[in-house]
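Chapter summary example.
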Amino acid sequence: MQKFKIMKKLLLIILIILPTFIKAQQYIPFPDSNAVWGEYEAYMGTCFPCKYQYRMLGDTIINSVQYNKIYFQNDSLSNFTNAAYFGGMREQTKKIYFRSYYCNNEILLYDFTKSIGDTLKNLHCGPDFCDTIVPNYGIISNIDSILIDGNYRKEFHITDQLGEAYYNWIEGIGNVFGLFSPMVPGSTCICYWDLVCFQQNDSVKYLNPKYTTCYPVTTGISNYVSIGYSVSVLPNPFSSYTILRTDKILNDANLIIYNSFGQSVKQIKNISGQTFTLQRDNLSSGLYFLQLTQDNKILTTDKIVITDK
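The structure predicted for these 309 residues follows.
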């Protein structure tokens, strides 16, 4: 009789746990349209632009491979008119690949096939999205589940080689420190990132528990029309000069360079054509931000790194 009671209790526990276990095993893929990652970045206690967003809208074909387009905007305007094309993203067998607009190759951004104990290439401190990325490495210390919008998603906990907490990945969303964080141009790691929230089809799917409100507003996301410019900055980092190339002809455009404190340190006006050489001149080494505008519209914003090599 006692054994029967124990077996009955065990069966009850299994019946309670089993649905959760089954849900936890269902893979949640990355979005392929109408998705928004609202983020926050601070640099040495200050920030520029501080709040920004990535949006996935539409698709494109590159070298016969289909990608979902990613756009970048550095403010919270709901009409998204100041967006700049950032690159393409695609998913294949639970692996998320990204191809920057100025690179000839794609990189493996996320790999959700990994297991506990596996090593990941962590792109922290890499100078750009191309071949010159300098990798560190992270280790998956734990994988558990998080309930989001009625579905359980796997959450990967990643530590550094010393066992210190690094960051978390969430299926279908990405890094809790930002979609591309900390894989950003930069020669040093003195920035701080946060994924504030993730939205899809005008619905908030994830809100970082550190924040009380979601950013940005998604009104009009489906009616977005791209300004249609693609701008590359190569080389980046650079020591003496770099070249900006656009896929369309500029006409009386303006370029402003900001330092890490958001102060304008260089301005060039009346830029025309499709290529422009940016000279270092007297700028010191470090991280800068550029903003290219024309007809009072932002064509692109980007980060550049100046070195003393």
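To summarize the output: The two ends are 80 Å apart (CA to CA).
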